C-alpha cells in the first residue's frame, strides 16, 4: 500500500521500445509515476499531453516522468508517436506493479463493476521514498499540481 515516507516498491517494466526500465535506474532523482487506465482514450490523452506540455519543467527540476498502464509496449509506442510524448510509458500487462502500488481496483461504470486502474500519481524522492500521493486523480489541472509538488 502507498504511504508517504515509505520506500517505493521496486519495479522493472518494458517501455514503448521493449527496453527494460527499473526504478533503481533513477536513484538520486525525483520520479513522477503516473498510473493511468488506457492509451489513446480521452482522459488519458489529456493527462499525457498536459505532462508533455510541461515537460521542460520536469527536466528543469531534474526529475523523471514515467507513465504506467496495463497496455502493451506496442500500444504505448503508438500513443507516444501520435502525441509526441517525450517520456517513457511502461507496460504492466500482468498488473503486478499496478497491484503492488494499490492502483488496480474495482471500479464501477453505469452500475457495472469491473477491475481497472484508479488514476493515481506518486512522487518518489531522491532517496527512493514516497514523497507525495495523488489518489483518484481528476485530469484537469493535475499536471500543474504535480509539478508544484516537485519543489
Largest sheet: number of strands, sense, barrel closure:
5 strands, mixed
Order of helices and strands: EEEHHEHEHEEEEH
- Count of distinct structural domains: 1
CATH topology description: Glutaredoxin
Strand order of the biggest β-sheet: 5-4-3-8-9
Structural class, from secondary structure content? alpha/beta
CATH class: Alpha Beta
Q: Which CATH architecture is right?
A: 3-Layer(aba) Sandwich
Task: Write structural notes for this entry.
The chain is α/β, with parallel strands linked by helices and 151 residues long. It has a single domain, classed as Glutaredoxin (3-Layer(aba) Sandwich). 28% of the residues lie in helices and 30% in strands. The protein contains five helices and nine strands. The protein has a five-stranded mixed β-sheet with strand order 5-4-3-8-9. The protein has a two-stranded antiparallel ribbon with strand order 1-2. Strands 6-7 form a two-stranded antiparallel sheet. The longest helix has 12 residues. The radius of gyration is 14 Å and the shape is globular. The model has no long low-confidence stretch (mean pLDDT 95).
Amino acid at each position: 500500500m502507498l504511504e508517504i515516507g515509505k520506500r517505493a516498491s521496486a519495479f522493472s517494466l518494458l517501455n514503448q521500445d521493449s527496453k527494460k526500465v527499473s526504478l533503481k535506474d533513477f536513484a538520486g532523482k525525483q520520479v513522477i509515476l503516473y498510473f493511468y487506465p488506457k492509451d489513446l482514450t480521452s482522459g488519458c490523452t489529456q493527462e499525457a499531453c498536459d505532462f508533455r506540455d510541461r515537460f521542460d519543467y520536469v527536466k528543469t527540476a531534474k526529475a523523471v516522468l514515467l507513465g504506467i498502464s496495463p497496455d502493451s509496449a506496442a500500444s504505448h509506442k503508438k500513443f507516444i508517436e501520435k502525441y509526441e510524448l517525450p517520456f517513457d510509458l511502461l507496460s504492466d500487462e500482468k498488473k503486478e506493479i499496478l497491484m503492488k502500488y494499490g492502483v488496480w481496483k474495482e471500479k464501477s461504470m453505469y452500475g457495472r463493476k469491473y477491475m481497472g486502474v484508479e488514476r493515481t500519481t506518486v512522487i518518489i524522492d531522491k532517496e527512493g521514498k514516497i514523497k507525495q500521493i495523488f489518489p483518484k486523480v481528476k485530469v484537469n489541472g493535475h499536471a500543474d499540481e504535480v509539478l508544484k509538488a516537485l519543489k
